[in-house]
Specification:
18 helices, five-stranded antiparallel beta sheet, single chain, 19% strand, 2 domains
């Protein structure tokens, strides 16, 4: 046989798009499962319930994009307050870094929306189709009236959850009571319809069908998580020194007799693989598909209890702790290492700056724009006049009165009304004419000269009473040649 023939015979066809085997995750109970469901209840209670909460006769949390008002309880934010969103994103990023450095993928395993909604959808699936073995048998069996009813009921429940999730999401941007009335009367607008269906379909598809594929292939966090780990990060690990060699044995075999029988604690039941939502075998070591849900810990502890063995064959442990056989207290002492301290310090500083900024935030905002259509003009008695447009935004939910003053040149004054009232959470544009006498214009000379507008929110009392707030805005006054 020549070389080319041998190469053809040895060639092997490898598909880059291998079909994914469906994962039938087994239900599990235990300490970590209880915490996971507690987070499911808390996050969904906040998400679904918050839009219905009223505050000051309006929705407590509402992002009104059309009016450019963002209501968060007592806070009324404008697009100019975008810096607070930036602060929240930075804070969230550092929190993710901190939690990952301390205990791995806590976010993914307990609070990520993908995990939360997958848990909800799988709960519905188990209620209507049964646990792992029942679902496998149902899928492999022929289509019957019972199978159609179970599958159809599951799909209907998933669609209902998805649509309600989409409706709630849109309810953060359109008042949810108004939105509900529009849905009931078939008066829903095109954009609301699109986003309800889009977000509902995304929830239905991601949590009902894609599930672990989102975590394994779509989520970037799985790819760079290892950069946040070190040898003192608490991760879910299988203890091979205690578990190997694995194998079956009679339940009557005492734990003390395992060493003489050449057995480890692992009975090779495979339950840790069956409960894993991403279908990995934790006994093969840390894998990027692991989302840190700790289902394998719960089920393995249950097996150890039944066999009469100590718990912790699969547990949260650090690499140093595993290699050097540290106890839990020794591993916890390594939590306060430089990386964790730096993340914590940065988070504290950001939180403090965020809180101070909110506390010192002025209750109104002012924009000053010089009217470019009329830069300068000479009016009665030779005075020079410039025209300005002032936007005053009332960031409170009470009627406020504002006093406008100008300074920066001798004899400078406002022609006309120098005060105004702004309704709650409203913004108003005001046209303000500013004049200077001819002798002041002569002393300044031609060109642009700096002046200051002072806008004061008047207090309910004497002019200097507590509650008066002043904002000073710089602009220029143009003297023509």
């Amino acid at each position: 046989m020549n070389t080319a023939a041998r190469d053809d015979a040895a060639a092997e066809l490898v598909s880059l798009y291998a079909a994914q085997k469906k994962i039938y995750a087994r239900s599990v109970s235990g300490w970590f499962a209880t915490w996971r469901w507690a987070l499911v209840f808390i996050t969904q209670l906040v998400f679904y319930g918050l839009p219905w909460l009223m505050w000051n006769d309006r929705q407590a949390v509402l992002f009104n994009l059309e009016a450019r008002r963002f209501y968060i309880f007592n806070l009324v934010l404008y697009p100019q307050d975008f810096i607070y969103l930036t602060g929240l994103l930075i804070l969230s990023a550092y929190a993710l870094f901190l939690f990952t450095a301390v205990a791995g993928r806590l976010w993914c395993g307990y609070a990520c929306p993908q995990t939360v909604y997958t848990e909800i959808f799988m709960w519905v699936e188990r209620k209507l189709e049964g646990d792992r073995n029942a679902r496998m048998k149902l899928d492999q069996g022929p289509w019957t009236l019972e199978k159609f009813a179970r599958k159809g009921g599951k799909q209907a429940a998933w669609v209902a959850i998805g649509l309600w999730t989409g409706f709630t999401f849109v309810g953060y941007f359109t008042p949810i009571r108004t939105l509900g009335h529009s849905v009931a009367t078939f008066g829903l607008g095109p954009w609301e319809t699109f986003w309800i269906l889009f977000y509902g379909f995304a929830t239905y598809g991601n949590a009902g069908f894609m599930r672990e594929q989102v975590c394994k292939y779509m989520c970037p966090y799985a790819r760079f998580q290892s950069a946040m780990f070190d040898k003192d990060t608490m991760i879910i690990s299988y203890d091979p020194g205690r578990g190997e060699p694995r194998g079956s044995r009679p339940r009557s075999m005492p734990h003390a007799a395992l060493a003489s029988a050449g057995k480890g604690d692992c009975i090779d039941c495979g339950l840790c693989v069956q409960v894993c939502p991403t279908g990995i075998d934790i006994r093969k070591g840390l894998q990027y598909e692991c989302i840190g849900c700790a289902a394998c810990i719960d089920v393995c502890d249950g097996v150890m209890d039944k066999m009469g063995y100590p718990r912790g064959l699969v547990r949260y442990v650090t690499q140093n702790g595993m290699d050097q056989h540290w106890d839990r207290s020794a591993m916890l002492r390594r939590v306060l290492r430089p990386r964790v301290l730096i993340y914590s310090a940065v988070m504290v500083l950001i939180c403090a700056a965020f809180a101070v900024s909110l506390y010192l935030r002025t209750p109104f905002k002012v924009d000053v724009v010089r009217d470019r259509a009329t830069l300068a003009r000479i009016v009665d008695e030779g005075r020079i006049e410039n025209v300005y447009r002032l936007q005053i935004m009332n960031a409170t939910e009470e009627l406020q009165r504002y006093r406008i003053a100008v300074s920066g040149a001798s004899g400078i004054e406002i022609d006309g009304r120098a005060s105004t009232e702004i309704a709650p959470t409203e913004a108003r544009w005001l046209v303000v004419n500013v004049r200077i006498p001819p002798e002041a214009a002569a002393s300044l000379g031609s060109g642009a000269h700096p002046i200051q507008f002072s806008i004061t929110r008047e207090a309910s009392g004497p002019p200097n009473a507590a509650g008066a707030v002043t904002i000073v805005e710089e602009t220029t006054f143009v003297v023509p040649r």
